[in-house]
Amino acid sequence: MRASDKAYQTLLDEIVDGTLPPGTVLAEVEQAARIGVSRTPLREALGHLRKDGLVEPLAGRGLIVTAVSIDDIVELYELRQPLEQQAARLAAQRGNPQVFAQIAKELRGSDALIDSGEVGIKAYYQLNERLDRAIEDSISSAYLVAALKALHLHLARIRRLSRQNVNRLRAAAVETLVIVEAIVNRDPDLAASATHVHLQQSLRNSLETIQTRTIDKVA
Predict the structure, then answer these.
(1) Parallel/antiparallel/unpaired status of strands 62-65 and 55-58
(2) Do 38 and 6 meet the contact criterion of CB atoms below 8 Å apart?
(3) Could you tell me if 58 and 119 lie in one domain?
(4) Rounded CA gap, 82 and 85, in Å?
(5) Most buried of 37, 106, 112, 166, CB within 10 angstroms?
(6) pLDDT 10s digits, 117-126
(7) What is the DSSP code string of the chain?
(8) Residue-number span of the structural domain to which 26 is assigned
(9) Distance from C-alpha of 129 to C-alpha of 15, rounded to nearest angstrom
């Protein structure tokens, strides 16, 4: 792996999982030493993250990790709704039912994962990422896949808002299972409809979570 790729992936993972929270200053010298690369590949990685919209310049302080605002969430879901509904519809038409049947089987054990603590919750999120990849592999649409990948980069940060909300995670697992079973049964209309319901619930929860955190900070 190239040094710039290593630096990019390290910083990306840490931004997405919250290790580097919004507002964190990413000083070149410090981050280069921490990751174990020189400043040139680190600068390249930071440029890539800036294009992704995950960092932004702050006068006199270099680059900082961007915040996730209510407006950001609403705009992302406005884009997410039509893209993921169409992706689910195409996956139901074109996907391999056996691949999705295995994911459905694992989703039925989501409660046990979610209740087992941080390690289990991480495994649950990894299962969702496998589902995203399975759908992308099924739809045979390079343009739609590219749009979904760019979208999921930012949605991963929003998903993290629900990480401590066990009830929401359980409900989301049930909603996701309906989508996957519709794909297994090659029912594109149900897959799209179930995706619509799931995203509406996810949007409502994300907005409630970030509004609560904003109020808590003010208080």
Answers:
(1) antiparallel
(2) no
(3) no
(4) 5
(5) 37
(6) 889 988 998 9
(7) --HHHHHHHHHHHHHHTTSS-TT-EE-HHHHHHHHT--HHHHHHHHHHHHHHTSEEEETTTEEEEPP--HHHHHHHHHHHHHHHHHHHHHHHHHS-HHHHHHHHHHHTTHHHHHHT-HHHHHHHHHHHHHHHHHHHHHH--HHHHHHHHHHHHHHHHHHGGGTT-HHHHHHHHHHHHHHHHHHHTT-HHHHHHHHHHHHHHHHHHHHHHHHHHHHHHH-
(8) 3-65
(9) 17
pTM of the model: 0.83
- Res 218: pLDDT: 40
- The answer to whether 76 and 151 are in contact (CB under 8 A) is yes
Q: What is the pLDDT of residues 206-219, one digit of tens each?
A: 898 887 765 445 44
How many structural domains does the chain have? 2
Paired with 57 in beta bridges are: 63
Question: Taking a C-beta distance cutoff of 8 angstroms, is the pair 145, 138 a contact?
Answer: no
C-beta separation of 170 from 110 below 8 A: yes
171 and 78 share one domain: yes
Same-domain status, 105 and 160? yes
Q: Nearest 10 degrees: CA dihedral of 166, 167, 173, 174?
A: 160
